[in-house]
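Side project, low priority. Logging it here so it doesn't get lost.
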Amino acid sequence: RWVDANSGASDGSRCTLALLTIDRGEGVMEGVSLGDSGIFLGNMESGVRRVVPPNTFYTAPWDPGSHGIPPSASFRVPVKSGDWVVTCSDGVHECRYETPEDSLGMDDLEALMIRAGRSPEIFVETAVRLALEGVRGNPGGEDNIGLVASVA
């Protein structure tokens, strides 16, 4: 079973989980995404898209009952050479609580991918700085920040 954060349970903190693997030989990325962390896939032809929409399912290491994966949190998508894969906490794409429109959005992520070329290090450094400082005149840095980027 999984735990729905909206169920009203107050037995401790729960966390998100974003886990993926890329099989470059088969051209497939698959994994799971629980909670409001994000997994994004981007390329120059089709832009950036979120692989799994945010959901209210969280896990807790101390609660074995929360370790199941709901079907809607699993994904298997094609990936090709040159695609960007970005996995991040909501402190990046929602650096202002409950106002993703004032935070780093798909257009921002795409612009960062273009600016970074094929350098995940430049992408991560710039995205973290923007999440902390804010974008489009909005403040940032209201939530935790975790970010991993890779070019397939």
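Brief comment: The first helix runs from residue 90 to 93.
Revisit when time allows.
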